[in-house]
Amino acid sequence: MFEKEVAGIELSAELNQFISEWKEKPGNLIMILHRVQEEYGYIPREVALELSRILDVPLAKIYGVVTFYHFFKLTKPGKHIIQVCMGTACYLKGGADLIRDLERLLGLPVNGTTDDGEFSLEAVRCIGCCGLAPVMTVDGEVFGKIKSDQLPGVIAKYKGN
Amino acid sequence: MAYRSYILVCGGTGCESSHADKIYQNLKNEIEANKLSEQVQVIKTGCFGFCEQGPIVKILPENTFYVQVKPEDAKELVDEHIIKGRPVERLIYSASDDKNRKSVIAEEKDISFYQKQYRIVLRNCGMIDPEVIEEYIARDGYAALEKVLFDMKPEQVIDELKKAGIRGRGGAGFPTWMKWNFTKGATNSETKYVVCNADEGDPGAYMDRSTLEGDPHSVLEAMTIAGYTVGAQKGFIYIRAEYPLAISRLKIAIQQAKDMGLLGDNILGTDFSFDIEIRLGAGAFVCGEETALLASIEGKRGMPIPRPPFPATHGLWKKPTVINNVETYANIPMIILKGGDWFASIGTETSKGTKVFALTGKIKNSGLIEVPMGITLREIIYDIGGGIPNGRKFKAAQSGGPSGGVITEEFLDTPIDYENLAKLGSIMGSGGLIVMDEDDCMLDIAKFYLDFTVDESCGKCAPCRIGGKQLYGLLDKISQGNGELDDINKMEDISLAMQRASLCGLGQTAPNPVASTLRYFKDEYLEHITDKKCSAGVCKDLLQFNILKDKCVGCTVCARKCPVNAISGERKQPHEIDQNACIKCGECYEACKFQAITRG
Fold it and tell me: Which of B23, B81, B95 is nearest to B52 (CA)?
């Protein structure tokens, strides 16, 4: 279910502005959810409730949409998001080994977040730079042709920052 | 204004990931520092295609092709090439591997990677700055739209597409003119839509992304032409949220086209008005299926609905909707300008024009290629791709991603077109082409794709939801060494049921990787089942690493490499692997210089 948040969330002026721009357009829900996730990093329950009120859409329907699409998250991700590409080219060149090693290094399962909230680990579909396979990204920065023994160095670069 | 020189820097996602942006900035700074801004223009273009050698920089008019450029090379490029007129030889593609065996290859036309390519869709990628509409216009951009609006009736546009014989590039290969004609003829509503499917979810494929990043206006122009032809007023581009660069370039392109009166109200002063809006996907592979895509644009869960009625008459909000993918659209302006007969002169009897492939996997030159239909796989893999790296042997190529199948060595000389690929048990698909060598286990590949489709099944219909899961379960069981001979029959039965009874293309094609690998690599399945062996060394449960006592010299390299300390032994004494602790990562096998470790 949606992660519990403190009641009575105040939406930022920009978010409110975006919602009012899209409010009357048909098929607006996914675009608005994208904007919410851009702001919070996930879809907090309180914001979903607020959306349900503003757009006059049942919360259950919003929940249905959020859970259907991989892109939307219901829990807060870590400060740094590590994504390992599991597209076919990266898989053939050892993407699964990278995930296994990262799981061990960070002590968390894929799609998990470390206890200190520092790192999240995700397996993602093709990032689109197959020439660099295997590929991983940290906070959007791409690391291509990466080998297992480079992983501790990459993590150290972000830890504590 | 013409410049003395142009420096083109690749701004595709692959090169950007290798700091192409910094290269571009450094080059600009160098040009400014040398007060050459009036004479030399630095341009960030779309993808050149030769991703393996990126980041790529090309300097005109000499046409010098620099590869693997680093940001710190900017100064040397400007000092040497631009100012002194001497090419920087160390950055020129030195093709010791290139088939042509020239020592230094300074121009694209001499590189074997480019020689068999034919660029229609990618005509502007790597040629123009995708963020400047004037550059697109300078290469005949929007001339097709002008021709259509002033000189052609909608029927003539459809006739031209019919003559061209272009078929949908999204995978299924339905004739484009028929789609457009159905929507044009639909009388159930005055409101009609044009939709561009840019939800490229096939793992290992990035053709559409590169087209949109490198030449967004070609798609906008084609959608506007479609709007005029079928009588639509509005277009939607449905694009993956995971493609931020393509989205931002599309937004810029839409705004520029509107500012110039090429989009919006009264286009080019005519009474035709057409607008395009971007809608983001959210990571659901099934949304590449047209009815699911339309549901997603409507803001709903992206679940397919049965066809007929087809979107051509009952599409977005039940209105007549033309829906094509990015590559199909990118062809249209050229067909209008050069004529259907010209387009039809390229390709085979049933498949006209070109096809863009993302050539990846175990191949020397991975990258984005565009080839005429009818080319053979051998030409793609050996002439363009440069063959298999590390002296390994070709095993199979997978086309069509999770919906496709494998093509084996004996069919390397089959001309590639829709029909031939179908006969081989694969499909054209959207253009992912993944090369596999002898180190790849075919059962594992089938499992990889099934894992993907099970995860992506929307769950609406039972054959796909349950069948996929069961199929995956059987593959998993075999890969763990628990397979029985009857499992193969079970897999064949389930595959057939899914193909016949699933609601949409996802479920109908999900068993293809299993069916296709079973057809060509049944031996490998049998080896897993009866011998409990995986000779490619991929299925970890069937693997064991052992140290040969007579070959081990006790150098301790393997023990130090082992991530779980499963290897023990005194210095200069034979070592041993604790099989219970071993995680079968293969680090020791790779590290041993004395071939003292066996895998089997």
Answer: B95
Distance (Å, whole) CA A94 – CA A150? 14
pLDDT in the model for residue B1: 55
Q: What percent of chain A has pLDDT over 90?
A: 76
Which residues lie across from A142 on neighbouring strands?
Answer: A137
Measured distance CA(B140)–CA(B147) in Å, rounded: 11
The pLDDT tens digits for A9-35 are 789 999 999 999 999 999 999 999 999
In this structure, the answer to whether residues B337 and B360 fall within a common structural domain is no
d(CA B392, CA B402): 25
- Which tokens hold the place of B119? 């660029």
Q: Which of B13, B202, B280 sits opposite A129 (nearest CB)?
A: B13
Instruction: Check B360 against A101: CB less than 8 A apart.
Output: no
Which amino acid makes up residue B215?
Answer: D
Does B370 reside within a domain? Answer: yes
Q: Which residues of chain B from 319 to 338 reach within 8 Å of chain A, CB to CB?
A: none
User: Same domain for B456 and B510?
Assistant: yes
Question: What is the complex's ipTM, to 2 decimals?
Answer: 0.90
Q: Which residues of chain B fall short of a pLDDT of 50?
A: 101-102
Contact (CB, 8 A) for A31 and B297: no
- Cα torsion angle, B212, B217, B221, B227, sign: positive
According to the model, what pLDDT value does residue B228 have? Answer: 98
Predicted local distance difference test score (pLDDT) of residue B101: 46
- Tell me the chain A residues in contact with residue B362 when contact means C-beta distances shorter than 8 Å: 92
Q: What is the spatial distance between Cα B453 and Cα B468, in angstroms, rounded to a whole number?
A: 7
B424: Cβ contacts below 8 Å, ≥ 6 apart: B405, B407, B411, B414
Cα-based angle A29, A35, A37 (whole degrees, multiple of 5):
100
pLDDT band at A2 (very low <50, low <70, confident <90, very high): low
Distance from CA of B140 to the nearest CA of A (A): 29
Chain A touched by B522 (CB under 8 Å): no
List of residues 6+ apart from B282 with CB closer than 8 A: A30, A33, A34, A69, A70, A71, A72, B241, B296
pLDDT the model gives residue A91:
92
Q: Which residue matches tokens 């502007």?
A: B124
CA distance B494 to chain A (A): 24
H or E element that contains B448: helix B442-456
Q: What is the pLDDT of residues B489-530, one digit of tens each?
A: 999 999 999 999 999 999 999 999 999 999 999 999 999 999
Domain range summary for chain A, segments of one domain joined by +: 13-68, 80-158
Question: What range does the domain containing B217 cover?
Answer: 133-343
Please check whether residue B88 lies inside any domain of the structure.
yes
- How far apart (Å, rounded) are the C-alpha atoms in residues A2 and A59? 11
Q: Quote the pLDDT of residue B537.
A: 87
The pLDDT of A52-56, averaged and rounded, is 95
Is the pTM value of this prediction over 0.90? Answer: yes
Return the pLDDT at B584: 85
Assess B562–A contact: CB distance below 8 Å, yes or no: no
Query: Which residues lie below 8 Å from residue B7, measured CB to CB, with a gap of 6+?
Result: B27, B31, B40, B41, B42, B43, B57, B58, B59, B60, B77, B82
CATH superfamily label, A80-158: Glutaredoxin (3.40.30.10)
What confidence score (pLDDT) does residue B104 get? 58
Q: Does position A90 have pLDDT exceeding 80, yes or no?
A: yes
Q: Across the interface, do A131 and B563 touch by the CB < 8 Å criterion?
A: no
